Amino acid sequence: MVSIGKEKLSFYEQNGFVRFEQALSQDLLARLRDLSVRLEDSAKADLANGALRNQYFLSTESEEPKLFRYNDLLFDDPELVLALLASPTMMAICEQMVGLGCVPMQLDLVYKYPHPHPHIAWHHGAPHPRNYPYLNVGVYLDDADLDDGCLRYVPDTQHEVLDIYELSSQYGWDIPGVVQQPAKAGDILVQDMMILHSSEPKRSEGPRRTIYIELRPVEGIAESAMQTAQWAELRKQWMAHVIKAADPQDVPVGWLEYYGEPEHDLPTLVTMIEEKRESPIPAVWSHRNVEHPDYPTPADLR
């Protein structure tokens, strides 16, 4: 079992985010990158054939369409998704940062291409009562460098929803205390779901692909009451499959007993999850369009 360590846990508690360097094996990273290429190719083929699906979103800001987001990777490659969730660092995050009852809620892939393709404005993710952990875990398939659209955080802003319009109107990308958080391919960046964060336009060529995984204990899902008990139970079954796929030495004590044997085989469970769709807790963005000389598009990119 990987130990996260007191230093990283303390940094996360104080700041609302933490980075795990080189957290994926090279083989797993290569498989995930291959999947990202296949998914983008399939979306572009759908566009060419006039058969777009609502599982993904294409950006058309430039002459060549680019994939912006592809949701629910579980539906496309369940075995690879299990391999990712069952990897040693992910299992350690589940145990040591969420605890018993942890389940994956969502697993999506975000593609970031150079401007004029989308930036990510300041926002808080999924407001919730905060009595249980709620993590957004970014798995980096490409490098995210300083001053090239990497994540921006305002540390220790995860406790309440701030006035995003006022802050971004006054400061643009440079809200007081902001830090840029670079990452390398194979890193995992864990953030509190509610921390105030953003991402400037990307300037370098090529895509930056990041898999985002929402993790939360079933008790927290019940507390927010935004999804049904049946929806949560299907994700508990998903986690049972993850535990079955993990190396036994990475499975926390007592988790086999808590999650039990999967009640359905993986293809059946995936179909059930696909059929039982429920809306997530929406993020909080600025309630009005912000007018600022360098935000959201920096002056030199206008």
Q: Please give the domain count.
A: 1
User: What is the overall silhouette?
Assistant: globular
Poorly predicted runs of 5 or more residues: none
Instruction: Please state the CA-atom Rg, rounded to the nearest Å.
Output: 19 Å
Average pLDDT metric? 96
**DSSP helix fraction:** 25-40%
Main CATH class: Mainly Beta
* Biggest β-sheet: strands ordered side by side in the sheet: 1-9-6-11-4-3-2
How many β-strands, per DSSP? 11
CATH hierarchy: architecture: Sandwich
What does this structure look like?
By secondary structure, the protein is α+β, with helices and mostly antiparallel strands. It has a single domain, classed as q2cbj1_9rhob like domain (Jelly Rolls, Sandwich), CATH 2.60.120. It has 9 helices and 11 strands. The strands form 2 sheets. A 7-stranded antiparallel β-sheet has the order 1-9-6-11-4-3-2. A hairpin with a 6-residue loop joins strand 2 (56-59) and strand 3 (66-70). The chain is globular and about 55 Å long. The protein starts with 5 loop residues before the first helix and ends in a 27-residue tail after the last helix. The mean pLDDT is 96.
